Amino acid sequence: MFALWYLTFAVDEIRKRLAWLFGPKKPAQQALDNKPAVASPSPAPAPAPQPAAKPNTPPATPSKPAAAPVSPPKPSTPTPSPAVTKPAPAAPTPAPTPVVAPKPAPAPAPAPVQVPTPAPAPAPVPVVAPRPTPAPTPVVVAPTPAPAPVVAPKQADKMPIPLPKALTESNTNGTNNGTATNGNGNQLDALDQKLFDATLPPSKVAKIDKEQLKDASNDFIKGEAQAFVQSIKEAQQAGERKQDTMVDAAVLAKLEEGFAKLAASDSKSLLKKYLTKEVFDNLKNKVTPTFKSTLLDVIQSGLENHDSGVGIYAPDAEAYTVFADLFDPIIEDYHGGFKKTDKHPASDFGDVSSFGNVDPTNEYVISTRVRCGRSMQGYPFNPCLTEAQYKEMESKVSSTLSGLEGELKGKFYPLTGMEKAVQQQLIDDHFLFKEGDRFLQAANACRYWPSGRGIYHNDNKTFLVWCNEEDHLRIISMQQGGDLGEIYRRLTTAVNEIEKRVPFSHDDRLGFLTFCPTNLGTTIRASVHIKVPKLASNKAKLEEVAAKYNLQVRGTRGEHTEAEGGVYDISNKRRMGLTEYQAVKEMYDGITELIKLEKSL
């Protein structure tokens, strides 16, 4: 009986103590309520909803129903409650299961509730609070209730999204890149703010300007697209630059074969003299940027014609720069020392009245001629011209010359449709260039013949213009006898009139640009057809004397022809490094001395 009474007393005492422990004024509950919020390793279910629960903090549904009744939460607590400790369900035995406190966090906090191990003997106090003294001050600190932030129970059924370290640190009362921040993360940078907003409920996320986002997206896509296009262009340009230094295998084969034959020949050309193995190897893979002209285009005439005096042509104006290692020494040799560092002087026709008649008695000079070559600006040289360009240039030349007046007035005759008899008569009169020049043909200067070719002459046939023979234009003033002064004056007038209508191609260093390097600079060639039988009896002697005065001796019909009846074509050789007036004066002085020498023999 005593044992039964004692058991009943013990159970009743335990019930009283439990009621005291979980009552509204219990010290343990107050200690738990005032405990700082600590992230629990595993979210605990909240107690069942009660009528007096806080309106801003709806409790989450517990994962399991509680076996024992739970005391209602304090109605006047202004601060958010931490994760509530889940009481264990009552055991079938009279002694209830003690409450297990959560594992304390590393941060300083009140000690967790200690639970004694259940034993058959009744324990006077099953739960011991870490601090027996109640802490009422924290409960009534806030004068007015504040909206509670997200509480731990709400996260029980959904794990939070992990945040980057930068965001976690900046959302505490610290600094972010030197900028003060608060608990709400008001000064977060743009990227971290977006990540932080992703963890908030929709009602807490700041409004985003969709148009700004759209513009930012479009800018990003546009930037990426432009970068991609630029990379493609750079790759194409790199390929083009590589292609600029690549020559077709067939062209290389022809170059190697032609070079070997030239080296083994007895050619006296300037091409053979200066096209060394080193220069050849350095230039054979190069091409001009615009028209892709190769070394073969430059030297093929000299490779096919070992009897050439020079042997090279410029297929386009850029060839003078790309293949300068070959052109420069040939130019220096032919033009009497015009070095690659020299610069051709400005155009100057001088005093046209200073020249007189070199042979007043007409005993030696049969005829006199002064001509110059010109290239039309904007067009390549003959090898690179298309048939359409030939015809276009012919039309421009014809319309330009039709506007000349006075002694220059005349008519343009296109080769296309010209009768053979008329053509041959003009050739015999030394007015018209002839078809089939093997040196020009080898240089690809006779393509689409006779398209785009023609001749203009005045009524007296003392002024002529050749269109697209060797150069785009050959402007010629000529007449019988040795009156060089009158002939030179007529040429000067014609060149100035034509240049007003047609712009010419000119280079600051090389002067007026032409197809053949021998005609660069002034492009002036002043010549006479002269009969000097005593000097001609020894042609070597004639050439030796002429060279002293920088004169060149040719056959009656010009370059690559023989003298007919002892008549030679003698002209000034230098055209670079001196003015037009100086070039003509060299011829004037030289012819005067030859006539004196012929008279003395």
UniProtKB/TrEMBL annotation:
Disordered, as annotated region: 27-113
Please state every residue range assigned to the domain named Phosphagen kinase N-terminal: 251-336
Q: Which PROSITE patterns does this entry report, sorted A to Z?
A: PHOSPHAGEN_KINASE (PS00112), PHOSPHAGEN_KINASE_C (PS51510), PHOSPHAGEN_KINASE_N (PS51509)
Indicate the segments forming the Phosphagen kinase C-terminal domain, all copies. Answer: 364-601
Annotated GO biological process = phosphocreatine biosynthetic process
Q: Which domain of life is it from?
A: Eukaryota
Q: Which family does it belong to?
A: Belongs to the ATP:guanido phosphotransferase family.
Name of this protein: arginine kinase
